[in-house]
Design a protein that fits this description.
The protein is of the alpha+beta class. The chain is about 30% helix and about 30% strand.
């Protein structure tokens, strides 16, 4: 059974670049009970005092080798490191992790989360799907006035016996959740989607756009 993706793009002022990879482990022992965790980790940050996050994520996506499970796990680690280095500029967080007894149910929830996040965005300018890089010219980047924020979202599917983390409500818990996510063993990482919005370094979200599109985010000091 393959994980599948639905493309959704509705009216919005943001841009998107996403990287999505999947690894289906061998069936092995058919009597072994598999537990699947679906985790969403989201952080908003100010871009004025920490420029280059979008550029770093784009460069990482375009230059990462994701042919093996180990490579995909390394991609997750490197993308987390980029966000960790901007810790002083985190402004809002959101995170939760759930477990499911069946692969089908986990896949459904993962796809729902992916659609929810991608439906907030108007155009995908970069995608990397199973190593196939697709890039197209942005039609709006640079045409808008200066904003304040970018939002980075990690959607992670793992095979595990417990959630990756609990609810995220402060900077300390976010840091721990990011570090734990980055430490996910390659053999447990089933699927990973990375979304950052806006994708272009010349673009950003205003405070009003952040609040209207990402109502689940909690402001942190």
């Amino acid at each position: 059974m393959f994980w599948f993706w639905l493309f959704v793009a509705v009216g919005s002022v943001a841009l998107i670049a996403y990287c999505i990879y999947y690894y289906l482990p061998p069936s092995g022992d058919k009597n072994k009970k598999h537990i699947f965790a679906i985790s969403k980790l989201q952080v908003a940050m100010l871009v004025g005092t920490y420029p280059g996050v979008q550029c770093q994520l784009t460069e990482l996506a375009l230059n990462s080798d994701v042919e093996s499970a180990t490579d995909r796990a390394e991609f997750l680690q490197e993308s987390v490191l980029i966000v960790l280095r901007s810790r002083d500029n985190w402004t809002h967080v959101c995170g939760n992790s759930q477990i499911f007894a069946s692969r089908e149910e986990a896949a459904q929830i993962f796809n729902q989360l992916s659609i929810q996040e991608r439906s907030k965005l108007s155009v995908e300018t970069l995608s990397v799907v199973n190593g196939d890089i697709r890039r197209r010219q942005s039609v709006s980047a640079g045409d808008r006035g200066p904003g304040e924020y970018i939002v980075v979202t990690f959607l992670i599917g793992t095979e595990d016996v417990r959630p990756l983390f609990g609810d995220i409500c402060d900077v300390g818990k976010l840091k721990i959740a990011l570090e734990k996510s980055a430490a996910t063993p390659a053999e447990n990482l089933l699927i990973f989607e990375l979304i950052w919005s806006p994708q272009e370094e010349t673009d950003s979200l205003t405070g009003d756009e952040l609040l209207s599109s990402y109502a689940d985010l909690i402001q942190v000091d």
